[in-house]
Amino acid sequence: MTQIITVAWFINMKAYKIDEMTSEKVQWGFHKILVDSKTVGSKNLIVKLTEMPPGMEHSTHKHKVEEVIIVLEGEGIHEDAGELRTS
Questions:
Q1: Which of 25, 26, 47, 58 is most buried, most CB within 10 Å of its CB?
Q2: pLDDT higher than threshold 90 for residue 25
């Protein structure tokens, strides 16, 4: 049996279906911004759903806010406090 899961995101008490949100083209693939200063007024957190093609790299960088990385499919290598980790 196939299970269909609809993911909805609530922004300012309005529900958005993630698969219906607009993707933004970035150098390393595509992303959808779910939470940031523009969507909900967040000053300390950005939540993005990012799709990166296999073999794509993203340069080392820092943010002024916290970042959460959740790998939904595949794996990647990231740097955490100077240590390389596989996710």
A1: 47
A2: yes
Q: Tokens 């794996």 sit at which residue?
A: 75
Residues in Cβ contact with 75 at an 8 Å cutoff, skipping those fewer than 6 apart? 86, 87
Parent domain of 50: 21-86
**pLDDT tens, residue by residue, 64-80:** 777 777 777 888 887 77
Residue 31: inside a domain, yes or no?
A: yes
Residue with token string 């309005």: 14
| Angle, vertex CA 73, rays to CA 69 and CA 74, nearest 5 | 95
pLDDT band at 56 (very low <50, low <70, confident <90, very high): confident
Pairing between strand 77-80 and 66-67?
unpaired
Residue 72 placed within a domain: yes
